[in-house]
Amino acid sequence: MLQLAISDVLATMELRKKIGIRDVAKAAGVSVATVSRVLAKADYPVTEETRKRVTDVATAMGYVPNLLAKTFATSRTDTIGVAMPVLNAYYAKMLAGIEGAATEAGLSILLTIVGASDERREAAIDQFVARQLDGVIICSGAKDGPLRRPPEQMGVPAVVIGQQPSEGYVTVTVDNRRASYEATDHLVSRGNRTIVFLTSNSDWPDFRDRLDGFQQRLAEEDRATGQVIEGVYDEAQAYRAVTKLVAEQTTATAILAATDRQALGAMAALADAGLRVPSDMAVVGFDNYHTSEFVRPSLTSVDMPADAMGAKAVELVCMAKTAGAEKMASVVLEPRLFIRQSSGSFDNAALLAQSVKSLPSA
Amino acid sequence: MLQLAISDVLATMELRKKIGIRDVAKAAGVSVATVSRVLAKADYPVTEETRKRVTDVATAMGYVPNLLAKTFATSRTDTIGVAMPVLNAYYAKMLAGIEGAATEAGLSILLTIVGASDERREAAIDQFVARQLDGVIICSGAKDGPLRRPPEQMGVPAVVIGQQPSEGYVTVTVDNRRASYEATDHLVSRGNRTIVFLTSNSDWPDFRDRLDGFQQRLAEEDRATGQVIEGVYDEAQAYRAVTKLVAEQTTATAILAATDRQALGAMAALADAGLRVPSDMAVVGFDNYHTSEFVRPSLTSVDMPADAMGAKAVELVCMAKTAGAEKMASVVLEPRLFIRQSSGSFDNAALLAQSVKSLPSA
DNA sequence: CTGAAAGCGCTTACAG
DNA sequence: CTGAAAGCGCTTACAG
What we know:
The structure is a homodimer. Chain A is of the alpha/beta class. Chain A is built from twelve helices and 13 strands. In chain A, the strands form two sheets. In chain A, strands 2-1-3-4-5-11 form a six-stranded parallel sheet, sandwiched between helices. A six-stranded mixed sheet of chain A has the order 7-6-8-9-10-12, with helices on both faces. In chain A, helix 11 links the parallel strand 8 and strand 9. Chains A and B meet through helix 5, helix 6, strand 2, helix 7 and helix 9 of A and helix 5, helix 6, strand 2, helix 7 and helix 9 of B. Chain A binds a DNA duplex through helix 3 and helix 5.
């Protein structure tokens, strides 16, 4: 009985033990080298017979290759590290772009959210480097300090998305100045002469550029005046700022908000103050939130192609892998102004057939 | 000259070659075992002198441990795999919860977005298993098919977030039926007697439960009637459905939408039809989108604690690592109804001091 | 407290 | 076409 119990345990242990390439080799009567070749390199010259035997035995035994060992032996991780400050709508869109392009290229994603902390960002990069990843993508946050090491000391190909106070990095950015210029132009060309620019902190590169574009367009216009309200970081603060603006009987007829979040807060304030958008006050935002199309009135917004930026960054990392890191070059994408603020921006004439059921009243 | 060139090349190569534990050991005059102990186990008994010598030499040489080798040697990856269907606001919130808890526990995240494809989900799990990850978190999508292998055959601790047609898995879910019951109760208690339930597909578990909760509450009310509109998946379809409803002179005074996206589409339709929310038609949604607070009127919504679900899933995986996978048990979280639809839900009396600058007109 | 050595499970020149 | 063997860079019983 004891004997039996022990053999049971052994059998269980046998089952538990992961079967490796050696077990497959033994069972198939070939060398581990052959098994490795059959399983890992589709085009390696092997007899059809051996190939079949090996694959059959491997599947029969339920062999699962240990990617850790492979990765270690080849020092190719097929993984890129991604460091992001937060996971809001903007970065989620960026991450989706990164993930899609990475999967396409057969790469996995190691993700770290580092907050606004330069320490944690550096720690994440340390981790990526120590893990011998094939590349890293660093997504800039508004208040980033400079990266602590130059790109050539990273040890892996690195791409930065967004503006960054560090020198020498390959970056994927968007022309915020141009975008802001266009958005301001949209407002000016519709007859607005006093425009408020609602923003957070113009020390941050993207927001500095948005301010620049705003000012640049206004500078071209004779009778136009701009007013800049800084220190507005979220909806609630935008709400308060605009409520105050209205209470002070502003002469402004338009608001350019540096983000859609601020724009939504502004619109809420205008609605609560009984002002109509855009007839009493036009509002334009940045980021083109998905919901911006569906608020009423819908919001004209500058679409930041965060997903395209993410995909581009992956493309650059892949290029570095094949052609060498020195082949990478920074790229600047163009944002697009989505003009709305007339309701019904989608086809509401063709009503879909919906299945409508009535519940019996209980 | 040639000699020099060659030595230059060698020097360069020397620089390029990653320095390993062996180089540090040689330079410090100790064994690799000692270096490993000093660098990896803080509490291992080593002379203070040797410890200092090793750490000094290591930092002087710029030694970066190869985590790949460590991981391989110990077969602890300190990484969990996360498979999600998409990266929308809901899943981004969930991912943020996962990431936060994982970082807290010293774990990295390998992320894969699998779309609505069961194939890709299985492939992602294969990848996670082959990479010997410490655990996997599978985030359910609405139209998931069952997982192809039972939990005990995964080879790693697995936790499923959300409802899933597969048996035997440890899950983290939310009580959707209860949430829907409460939301319906909110509408009924405010005097609404004919309520429309706007939903996508009641074959999907979460949406089936939301329908159930709706019906259950109505069944308790004598004079209340429910109407179910299915096949509504996004804002535009909700817009069309509600536009049609209004055109048909509905007697309903309230809409319970199965998602905030649908609710926002419904509100846009009501606004465009000249109806007021909530006086002409009340609207309640699910998901508590961040923007739902800031649309006007603001949207009452059921908050799905996606981040808490994510954190809980990580907690379970960690428990499996320490106490064994059999210690894991499914958990059900309670959603919360956020009642709004009265504007000004945040403090708009205390206006922040904003820095206001006027630009000179050009 | 320290070291020599085996081992983690693959890949891949090299030789046949 | 196939195999024996070295090697990837660590960790960790085991012995001293």
